[in-house]
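Field: COMPLEX_INPUT
Field: COMPONENT_COUNT = two
Field: RESIDUE_TOTAL = 679
Field: MODE = joint
Values follow.
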Amino acid sequence: MRALLLLTAAAVAVTLAPSRAGAQEVGRSPLELVEYWDDVYRAASLRYQAAAAEFDRIDGNWNRLNDEYLQQLESNPARAERILGEILSLSDERTIKEGQVRIELGEWQEAGDSFIGALDNYLEILNNTIRVTPLGDSLDESISLYNFWHERLETVENDLAPTNLLLVLEPMPEVVARDDDTADDLERKATLLENRALRDSAVVVELEDRIATLRRRLERDRSAADLSARIRRFGDMTIPVVPTTEGGPEIVGDTTAAQTPEQRIELMEAYRDERIARVEQLLARASELRAEAARRRR
Amino acid sequence: MNRQGMVMLGVLALLLGTGTASGQVRLENVSITMGVGGEMYGSDGNFLSIAVPQVDSTDSALGASGDMGAAGTLIFMADNGRSLITEFDFGMRQFWTGGFQARNYAPRELSGRVRANYSQHFGGGTLAVIPSLDSRRIADRPPLPLYLAPGYSAGAVVANYSRAVATDLAFYGQLTGETKDYTADLPALDDLDRRSAGLEAGVQMFFRGGPETSDPQIRDHSTLRFFGTYLHHSYPKQGEGLLRRDNAARIGGEFTLDRRDTQGFQLALRAHGTRSRSNSRRVDYNAGRIEVEGSVELGEDTQLDLQGLWAVKRYINQQDFLIPGEEADNATIVFAQVTRFLRDGVRAGIGGGWRRAETNFSGAYYQRFSMSFSLTVSPRF
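Field: COMPLEX_OUTPUT
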């Protein structure tokens, strides 16, 4: 029994040991570490918000120009031509800003994970302190601290929770070949569509990676479940040395999650397929425009 | 088909029918498995079990088996705060044996299990109600050294309430009621019929590692759980006038370590000790049990899965024969399987198992080695 307890304690110690101790942890108390990561997290959050706001601003302009371009296409071709130039120029900037948002989002999430790790550790220490502290001002202070940082933990977890992909497709750009378009005009329009296709392709690659990870995990979970099912199905593990009662849940906790792993995979696959169809449409249209441009050059 | 089997199929059909009408039912985690295997059985020839119909003087025998099974999950409802799911599992296994003295046996096992789980957020925690039906049938049951458990029908209801008191700490309480009726192809099997009730309380701690993948829902974690249980078993067919009633206290713990994200393995270790006292003094005992489950990723397409159990029991008073319903005093069981992921939803496994059960009072034992190959398909719907 003692050996079992020692084994369990050792395993717990291994688990609880910080896996990636960084330079920022040296010489800092758990509270100082929490405060340090809180600052880092707040700064990363502000950077992300600023990048997202900048992207939203440019994206708003880009969408407005697209609408304007479509409106002017028939009534004022010269004006539409100038707008198309602006759109192409803004497209590159928009792509760069979108990339910055992704980088800032990644850093914000990473800072959030480190902050949560530090908070978990500190709250556990506070919890242990509260258990052994007699009634008095010191206990009140510890409880107050616990409540404050626990609330902060919930806020951070809530902030980070909706970072899953926003599964909404952007509207398809309406770019068509007009009779008075020159070959260069058509080439530019084709480039516009190809840029959009490129961005969508990057999202498809990211989705493929996430789907593959989830599916691999699901398959591996099923492998372990296969063995358990075959053993249990025919009573091979049941030697009635001691009567056992069965039928209880295997875990403690919330079993009412809205999405199962299969549902998450299906959702992402549907979104990926829509993106792929969109890329194919964009490239097909771009190809048509380039063919038309080539014809007009002749 | 017996009444309980009909009820089980009826419930499943009803649930499927309801789902079709509403159009909201999802069928997930479906696995269809087919397997073949070879086995060796051995004993010291003196192991007598009250629940086995025949006696054969052989010390060793050989066998082959083929099995098929299907399992899956029906999700009827899973919205914010509520869920209703039903798991089902059906299987059939056919043996061919050789080496017995009297004759060679060809036992066939049929099994079925349906378990529903209704969960709902309640009072800051989660309340789960889990009814289940479990049935097993066996034809041409052989004598030792091949021990195959007798057929039975069982029903259970579990009510579990758990609540987190911090981000990494949860308490739970659980009530269990179960009835188990063994098939009466032997009068002695009636003695095994049992009614059980249990009350359990426990605490679980949760430790989370940092994310290593792009998916925030996949990360290393571990849990530590401690529990205490009170169990009451009554045996309505044992004893004349004064029926046997056992009261048991159990304490135990469970440790799980999920390091798949960073190191490609996971482990679960469960252990508990039981102190059982009865109104029939001869069956008072203390017992212990350790169970291990683990998985190790062996490269991109291969995985090793392990399961093991070690159980030991010591009666307080001298025993000269086995107690009905407890065909052995000590047992060791180990299973291992290497699975190769052939393609999405198709897996092949090669595995082996060793089981040994023995008595304390005579040192008699039986054991069973098995090797098997299986193919599992998980179709998507």
